[in-house]
Design goal:
alpha+beta; Jelly Rolls; five-stranded antiparallel beta sheet; 8 strands
Length: 138
């Protein structure tokens, strides 16, 4: 069994953004040389997320609207956590969107269903953050 590990770094210049990272993750798979196994991809920060969904701009807008209704950024004073930071909403959004994804690898490819893509969700940007890609298999 082989194992592969790589960190992908992102610096988003705004507070929130969804980034399609499928190509970067597929490049990791090719670098690994693994053709059968499992790929784990997870956010290494508690205010960001990795998830799978469709790469469609209307859906991305819907996510932003829905998440903002669930955990509005402002007023900052509505959150106890914000006594020394202003990112309580980002922690909550990350919890809803999830920390990681696991994808099967079959014949050297990510075993996706139709339209599935991997996304990095940033909910408290303007600083450098990382995503871990870990692949195990043969």
């Amino acid at each position: 069994m082989k194992s592969y590990r790589k960190e992908l770094w992102f610096e988003v210049n705004q507070r929130r953004k969804l980034i399609n990272i499928t190509d970067e993750v597929e490049l990791c798979l090719k670098e690994s040389g693994i053709t059968e196994g499992l790929l784990l991809c997870n956010a290494m920060h508690i205010t960001s997320s990795v998830f799978i969904n469709d790469d469609e701009s209307g859906l991305h807008h819907d996510y932003e609207t829905w998440l903002e209704k669930l955990a509005p950024e402002k007023p900052y004073s509505q959150y106890r956590h914000n006594s020394y930071e202003d990112n309580a909403d980002a922690h909550l959004k990350r919890t809803v969107m999830g920390r990681e994804i696991v994808v099967a690898i079959t014949d050297g490819n990510l075993d996706f269903g139709p339209w599935e893509q991997i996304f990095y969700g940033e909910f408290d940007g303007k600083r450098r953050k990382r995503v871990l890609v870990k692949i195990i298999g043969e």
